[in-house]
Request: fold
Amino acid sequence: MKHKYLPLLILSITLTILICAVHAQEETTEKTTGLNYICAGISVSMSCIGASYAVAKTGTAMIGALTEKPELFGKMIAVVGLSEGIAIYGLLIAILVI
Reply:
C-alpha cells in the first residue's frame, strides 16, 4: 500500500526525460513553441514533487533524531536544505528549456 504510486512516478519521470531530451535535440527556427512550456512545467512540477517527498522524509527523520540528540541540529538542517535544492534544480532546467 505504501508504494502504490511508485510505478506512476517512475513512468512520469521517464516520459519527462524523454520528451525534454527529444525536444532539446530538435532544431527549430521559432523562438519558442508550446512544447517548451510543457517541458518547463513538467520539470518544475516533478522536481517540486520530489523535493516535497524528500523534505517530508528527511524532516520526520530529523525530528526523531533531535528528540534523542539535540546537538545534531546543525547537521540535520543541512540535509533538509539539500533536499530542498532539488526544486531549485528543476526551476533552473525550466529556465534553460524556455
Notes: DSSP finds three helices and no strands in the chain. The chain has a mean pLDDT of 80. The CA atoms of residues 1 and 7 lie 12 Å apart.
